[in-house]
């Protein structure tokens, strides 16, 4: 190991924080894989092939597990309706009755 750290010209490892006191690590949100700009179509085809292979492997694993007497099922997350989740930054819309009352008042 080098004694003088400034002589090392490689990439440094990211050091862990000294003490997090039970804080959870940051979870990244959004897409983790971007489509390349030049080979987008090839990348999409490879992605579809990978999805197909993964599904086949999961099915094979489930059948092998169920042969031994156990029951392994593939569980997918339930689909959530778009109407049940409301964004936080949306303003409340006026009711249709209020809008009709406002229009009637303007006409009178």
Note down, in words, how this protein is organized.
The protein has a domain at 43-78. It is 37% helix and 0% strand. The chain has helices at 40-67, 96-107. The longest helix is centred in the middle third of the chain and has 28 residues, at 40-67. It is extended and about 80 Å long. The model has no long low-confidence stretch (mean pLDDT 73).
How does the helix and strand content classify structurally? mainly alpha
Mean pLDDT: 73
- Tell me, what's the shape? extended
Ranges where pLDDT stays below 50 over 5 or more residues in a row are: none
User: How far from one another are the termini?
Assistant: 89 Å
Report the total helices: 2
Q: Please bin the fraction of helical residues.
A: 25-40%
Number of strands: 0
Q: What percent of residues are in strands?
A: under 5%
Largest sheet, if any? Answer: none
Order of helices and strands: HH
Radius of gyration: 28 Å
């Amino acid at each position: 190991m080098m004694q003088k750290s400034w002589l090392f010209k490689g990439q440094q490892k990211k050091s862990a924080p000294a003490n997090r006191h039970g804080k959870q690590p940051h979870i990244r949100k959004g897409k983790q894989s971007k489509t390349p700009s030049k080979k987008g179509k090839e990348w999409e085809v490879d992605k579809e092939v990978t999805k197909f292979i993964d599904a086949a492997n999961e099915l094979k694993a489930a059948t092998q597990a169920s042969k031994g007497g156990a029951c392994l099922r593939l569980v997918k997350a339930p689909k959530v309706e778009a109407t049940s989740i409301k964004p936080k930054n949306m303003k409340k819309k006026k009711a249709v009755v209020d809008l009709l009352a406002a229009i009637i008042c303007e006409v009178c």
